[in-house]
Give the backbone structure.
Amino acid sequence: MSDCLFCRIASGDIPAETIYENEQVLAFRDINPQAKAHALIIPKKHLDSLNDLNQTEDGLLAGLLRAAQDVAKALGIDQSGYRLVSNCGPDARQSVHHLHFHVLGGETLSDRMV
Ligand code: AMP
């Protein structure tokens, strides 16, 4: 989708600091970090949110979760710990409507989940 910010990052149209990439998935640093280490993992193909990931895409879901391990290692936070978050829809305040997981860490995170 040409008007989707993360599709434009995936296509290289808009620059981002890539941390990890494979055929299906791209991970890059969040432009407005909410923790000392904050990356985003996206599928290269457009899906609005987790709601759009159907059973035929279980391989992609596994790939996104597997990428979280690689991103955590690349950020050096796999042993210290990290949080994986996907905001879905208005109550979760999803602001970019292209499925993504936040990887947050590099410090002790808040014990509040909301
Ligand atoms: P969400 O609120 O869960 O939809 O998260 C969207 C995230 O995208 C926010 O944490 C933003 O800081 C991040 N973001 C927005 N634009 C960019 C960009 N150009 N490069 C990297 N991260 C971005």
